[in-house]
Structure formats: C-alpha cells, structure tokens
Amino acid sequence: MNKSYGNKLMRTIGWSLIAFLVLFIVGMMLGGLIGGGNILTPFLPSTWAHIFNFIN
C-alpha cells in the first residue's frame, strides 16, 4: 500500500459519513413531516428525551 491509497480510502470514508449524516437528517425530517406534521419535530430535545427514555 502507498500513501495515495490511504488518502483515497480516508476521503471515501469521510464522504460516506457525510452522505450518511445528510440522509439521516433528511430521513428524520421526512419522518417528522409524515408522522407529526412539523418538519422540525425530530430536532426538539423533548423528542430525543422520549427516544432515550423508550430505549432505557
């Protein structure tokens, strides 16, 4: 392996993480729109508190 392969691999992993994050946020917004009617519902602290209480 050479250095350019490592750089390309890290760049690919970075772009994959960014794409995952963007798609996760868009999915949360669409789910909030479909489920609750407000597109910003997934970003409220009360929503996350409910999720973490449900997990525990």
Short description:
The chain is an all-alpha fold.
**Uncertain runs:** none
**So what's the overall shape?**
elongated
How far apart the termini lie comes to 44 Å
User: What structural class should be given to the helix and strand makeup?
Assistant: mainly alpha
How many strands? 0
User: How many strands, what sense, and barrel or not for the largest sheet?
Assistant: none
What percent of residues are in strands?
Answer: under 5%
Kindly provide the radius of gyration, computed on alpha-carbon positions and rounded to a whole number of angstroms. Answer: 17 Å
Number of helices, counting only DSSP H or I runs of 4 residues or more: 2
- Average pLDDT, rounded to a whole number, is 88
**Topology as H/E string?**
HH
Q: Could you estimate the helical fraction of the residues in percent?
A: over 70%
Descriptive terms for the model:
56 residues; mainly alpha; 79% helix; 0% strand; elongated
Protein model, in words:
There is one protein chain. With 56 residues, this protein is mainly α. 79% of the residues lie in helices and 0% in strands. It contains 2 helices and no strands. It has helices at residues 3-35, 45-55. The protein is elongated and about 50 Å long. The protein starts with a helix and ends with a helix. The model has no long low-confidence stretch (mean pLDDT 88).
Topology:
Elements lengths: L2 H33 L9 H11 L1
